[in-house]
Amino acid sequence: MDNAARTADYLSRRDSRLSALKTFLADSVPAKALSQLTFEIGCGHGHYLTAYAAAHPDAFCIGIDLLKDRIIRAGRKRDRAKLTNLLFLEAEAREFLDALPSLAALADIFILFSDPWPKRRHHKNRILQSDFLSALAAKTRPGARLCFRTDYAPYFSAAQATVASHSDWKVDASDSWPFELETVFQSRAASYQSLVARRASHLAT
After folding, report:
1. Within a domain: residue 74?
2. CATH number for the domain including 129?
3. DSSP secondary structure string for all residues of 116-166
4. Element at 185 (helix H, strand E)
5. What is the Cα–Cα distance from 146 to 137, expressed in whole angstroms?
């Protein structure tokens, strides 16, 4: 298969995934919840977001992960807890943002112990990049929180610098971590660092 054919095949597959995501989200997210969504990127087996949804019954929560097995296990936790305000989806973060209904807005975004991609040549794969922060900001309203936690100090420093230099987000040292629950990765970490940023008010809503 030549490059043009591979590109066409990739775009076709992406369009198919986006179409399926848009349909699922339109059918599954209550209209009244669209303006205040809680979103976890890399939800793993769902420990954190299941506990969050149980503790915040008025919040509608969506967790995504790239691995189907994790989503299946997370869904089982949700079902055992009988939570109706929680969805788990197999999805890539940027595609999820593109698939959100036009009226949707993220109120809280959690990124917990994401892959730090420690090798320099792999830094481009880290999720907290400037263009991704812009994409997140486009799906939020002023005051929305971005909550990031990692046990890899160099990644934290890089992420903190990226967020602090981005005009759409402001790091707020006075903001406390909104919901504490020890995740599997956190339990294994000798130490970790947390960052809470707020979406700046200069963007149009």
Report:
1. yes
2. 3.40.50.150
3. ---SGGGGGG-S--HHHHHHHHTTEEEEEEEEEEES-HHHHHHHHHHHHT-
4. helix 184-188
5. 10
| C-beta separation of 128 from 159 below 8 A | yes
CA 125/CA 119 separation, integer angstroms: 10
d(CA 155, CA 126): 9
Binding site listing: 40, 65, 92, 115, 119, 151
Residue 86 has what pLDDT? 98
Q: Does the residue 204 lie in any domain?
A: no
Quote helix, strand, coil % in the chain, to nearest 5: 45, 20, 35
Binding site for S-adenosyl-L-methionine: which residues?
A: 40, 65, 92, 115
Measured between alpha carbons, how far is 204 from 180 in angstroms, rounded to an integer? 32
Cross-strand partners of 193? 150
Specify the number of domains making up the chain.
Answer: 1
Domain extent at residue 58: 3-199
Tokens of 151: 């046990």
Active site residues: 115
In angstroms, the CA 156 to CA 193 distance is: 7
Residue pLDDT, tens place only, 106-154: 999 999 999 999 999 999 999 999 999 999 999 999 999 999 999 999 9
Kindly state whether residue 205 falls inside one of the protein's structural domains.
no
Considering the domain boundaries, does residue 88 fall inside one? yes
